[in-house]
Amino acid sequence: MKRQKRFEEIEKRPVHLDGFVDEWPEEGFVAMDGPNDPKPSVTVRDGEIVEMDGKTEDEFDLIDKFIAKHSIKIENAEKVMAMDSVKIANMLCDPNVTREEIIPITTGMTPAKAADVICQLNFVEMMMAVQKMRPRKMPASQCHVTNIRDNPVLIAADAADAAFRGFPEQETTTAVARYAPLNAISIMVGAQTGRPGVITQCSVEEAMELSLGMRGFTAYAETISVYGTEQVFTDGDDTPWSKGFLASCYASRGLKMRFTSGSGSEVMMGYAEGKSMLYLESRCIFITKGCGVQGLQNGAVSCIGIPGAVPSGIREVLGENLLCMMLDIECASGNDQAFSHSDIRRTERLIGQFLAGTDYISSGYSSVPNYDNTFAGSNTDAMDYDDYYAMQRDLKINGGIVPVKEEDIIRVRNKAARALQSVFKGLNLPEITDEEVEAATYAFTSKDMPDRNMVEDMKSAQDIMDRGITGVDIIKSLYEGGFEDVADAVLKLLQQRIAGDFLQTSAIFDKDWNVISAVNNSNDYNGPGTGYHMEDELWEKIKNVPMAINPSDV
Amino acid sequence: MTEIDDLISKIVNNVQDASSSEPKPEPVKQATQALNREMTRDDYPLFQKHPEMVNAPTGKNVSEITLEAAINGQVKPEDLRISSDTLKAQGEIAKNSGREAIKSNMDRAAELTSIPDERLLEMYGSLRPYRSSKQELLDIADELQNKYNAVITANFVREAASEYEIRKKLKGDN
């Protein structure tokens, strides 16, 4: 065929590097409303669910069994299941119906019913519902802080940088697993330097992650994965009961925790049982509810490429965020793993959660250039900061961060690097040189960092565990190094673990350690003039982007 | 998989070494009983509204956990733990805020505070698929109930044992 020149040119656009596939329901390549999804149903006998979504009790798999027993408000189930899904969908996006009125309905549904309700909503209706249904009134966001060389000094500087911009939660992970204790300490010290009150996590293997928390190196955990089919759950080396037990382990040590799930994981792992992504994700959300876990990271997360490739996939992703909120669970709404080469589609991916506002709009905005993102890159990274600030300013949206001045960022980066230097000195870890502090202060990426002896660092990471170092030792080192204010921030963080206020739904801290959660900041949206409104002080900050020209200067 | 198992056993050994020298926790001060009523969302945040109730399992009040005390070696890792009473109180607050499921998790967590770190990690490992026989799970449930008075969690483990048998998730089923 003779090529039409315009078609040839369009094919060079970045969107042509993205993956798109046709629906293939038998293998789970269908976003929502799948032809093999069960019809919603429930039968309650003697206060127990004996039939659910087309299966009788003896046909229940492990997930059905767990959900039937732990996840549904049985006293409301039959009444709610008899309601028209369109009517419930209507209540969700109707500003006149409050969240408080809807929760008793949505928590009495079965997974298939919840998915069916979501299927009735278009994208804008979902956004209207999210605005009302997110548990915490004030929206926020979360960031990644990593680098591909696991350089601790750079992690500390980057954590301070991100904290100063306003992320109340920060997540790191490792390029090399053995670095975990060092990365956990580095992000914690850096974050408390940048803005006291930030909580940090280090995403590693489940038992290791809990152990880091027990020692006081992390304050919360998020990558506790649940899946929507029994086979994939088993392949993930857990069951709903082991995950429920693990959830209680975290709480018993005063650590905040949320689960992670997300559409596409079952397709990726090969056992979707022919069901739609939304239905399987619905089951994950119900498992989370049944475990009594306060929150969930969902919205396809690291499997975004799968829903992103099928029709209505990005709508489904917002739908699963909404479903999480409908069950009164904190939602960290994805927007993390990179999925598109097209800047237009990256914005499309973000826009639903960004405009409506969620507990954490992104559950991993890459606060470092994606080159250094060891979570395989994020939908938005450090290079997008000024675009993001402009969007907040253009639309008067609190997207979770505020514009900053270069000199302030240089100051906090430098202080964090020096604070970590003193911690390494105090704990007898391999020296952090002044040259490294300087490099971390001004670095673009880890390429700008002097080489460290990685073998020695890894040995010292193990040594931290062997010697039984805890948060108290870090406080001492900071204090002895002259960082009394950072020492005090780490102490306050450990105090909060005794009080447990941040174990409640959607909890974050402000800079003065005031907890802000769904308990004391519950979403009361009820139409224009209600719900979240940006306070004047924050709006002044968001307006004040350094790139704006002051007319009086012209 | 073996790497993870190695790691866990290493952690377990580490913690055992550390904990063997630790002093036994002192008797727990009763926190919630002081008020003699269930906590509500109006009692939240506990840290601000009821600081006198915020005690570590060692009995130390959060107000005693000062920077000075930490620097002088007067704060032990056990002083920085959440107590069973505080978890129960947070569970009551969650329930009063309409989140009963969270209370069930907090109630289990309250029971688990007295179990040493290493044993807790082992129990979690035993609940993973194909790790334990039914009897081994039932033994853990008995241990939870008899040794740690963790009745709610014991029943949760018994339920798992019975479901694992039906759905073939016990040792040897894979």
Strand-helix topology:
The complex is a heterodimer of chains A (554) and B (174).
Chain A: H1 5-10, E1 42-45, E2 48-52, E3 55-56, H2 62-70, H3 74-81, H4 85-93, H5 99-106, H6 111-119, H7 123-133, E4 142-144, H8 152-165, E5 169-173, H9 180-194, E6 199-203, H10 206-214, E7 220-225, H11 230-235, H12 240-252, E8 256-260, H13 265-268, H14 277-290, E9 295-297, H15 313-326, E10 330-332, H16 343-356, E11 363-366, H17 385-395, H18 406-426, H19 434-442, H20 454-466, H21 471-480, H22 484-499, E12 508-509, E13 515-516, H23 536-543
Parallel strand pairs in A: 4-5, 4-11, 5-6, 7-8, 8-9, 9-10
Antiparallel strand pairs in A: 1-2, 2-3, 12-13
Chain B: H1 2-20, H2 46-49, H3 67-71, H4 84-96, H5 100-112, H6 117-127, H7 134-148, H8 151-166
Helix pairs in contact in B: 1-6, 4-5, 7-8
Task: Tell me what you see in this structure.
The complex is a heterodimer of chains A (554) and B (174). By secondary structure, chain A is an alpha/beta fold. Chain A has a domain at 14-133 and 219-361: TIM Barrel. Chain A has helices spanning 5-10, 62-70, 74-81, 85-93, 99-106, 111-119, 123-133, 152-165, 180-194, 206-214, 230-235, 240-252, 265-268, 277-290, 313-326, 343-356, 385-395, 406-426, 434-442, 454-466, 471-480, 484-499, 536-543, and strands at 42-45, 48-52, 55-56, 142-144, 169-173, 199-203, 220-225, 256-260, 295-297, 330-332, 363-366, 508-509, 515-516. In chain A, the strands form four sheets. Chain A has a four-stranded parallel beta sheet with strand order 6-5-4-11. In chain A, a hairpin with a 2-residue loop joins strand 1 (42-45) and strand 2 (48-52). The longest helix of chain A is centred in the last third of the chain and has 21 residues, at 406-426. Chain A is globular. By secondary structure, chain B is mainly alpha-helical. Chain B has two domains: 1-17 and 115-174, Hypothetical Protein Yqey, Chain: A, domain1 (Orthogonal Bundle), CATH 1.10.1510; 26-113, no CATH class. Chain B is 55% helix and 0% strand. The radius of gyration of chain B is 19 Å and the shape is globular. In chain B, 44% of the residues are buried.
